[in-house]
Amino acid sequence: MAGTNPRAARIAKLIQRVIAASIETQLHDKRLENVTITEVRVTNDLQLARVFWTQLGDEGKEQGERKRATQALRQAKGRLRAAVGAKAGLRLTPELQFMYDEVPSEAHEIEDILATAHKRDEELAKARANAQYAGEEDPYWHNDEPEDGESDDGFDESDDAEDADGFDGFNDADSEADGALIDDTVADGPADGSAVDNDADSDAPDLHSAHEA
Predict the structure, then answer these.
(1) To which H or E segment does residue 49 belong?
(2) Domain count along the chain
(3) Which domain holds residue 178?
């Protein structure tokens, strides 16, 4: 395999460049327009070269297009092997085995998903930046500074003044009631006194009658 033998690794890189250039400049097959050679692995004995390829774009997602590209590569295998032999200068050209590479396709789909998510995040951030609040920006914010006429403990001085006036009114009303009660008591006093005096006069001896006698 490529990587275990330095010479096999160099030949694998060479085969990858030769096949990619041949597909683009010599074959001119429409079925191979979106085909990309992703990797080549050569055995240590240089007998076999596994050529991994993929098909990018929407064509890579359609099974029909993949089958047509696979058929085109099989048909061009002889020409591509001859091109490799001419460029590599090897006494024995490795046998070419084309294998579809699933990893780049999956990676491409992941990149599309990430790009879509990133675009959506940008749109949401832009929407938040242009958003306007229906009420206050922070409905839970309260001004702790006391307003004019209001003490630090949260009570309004005007309310205290009104309460004081109310108490004064109650005191005045009480005073008037007490005065009226006293007047009534005084007014009732002479009547009771006169009644006592009359009783006293009734008990006292009649001097006029005694004198006449």
Answers:
(1) strand 48-55
(2) 2
(3) 155-184
- Give every residue of the chain whose pLDDT is below 70, as ranges: 1-4, 57-62, 104-112, 132-213
Q: What is the domain-level CATH number for residue 80?
A: 3.30.300.20
Model confidence, pTM: 0.48
Where helices occur in the chain by DSSP H, the ranges are 6-22, 63-75, 77-88, 102-129, 157-203, 207-212
Total residues belonging to the chain: 213
The tens digit of pLDDT for each residue in 22-74 reads: 999 999 899 998 899 999 999 999 999 999 999 876 555 567 888 999 999 99
Per the domain annotation, does 213 fall within a domain?
no
Cross-strand pairs, 150? 156
- Say if CB 47 and CB 94 are below 8 A apart: yes
CA dist., res. 99 & res. 39, Å (int)? 10
Identify whether residues 11 and 98 lie together within a single domain: yes
Half-sphere exposure of 207 (CA within 13 A, CB side): 2
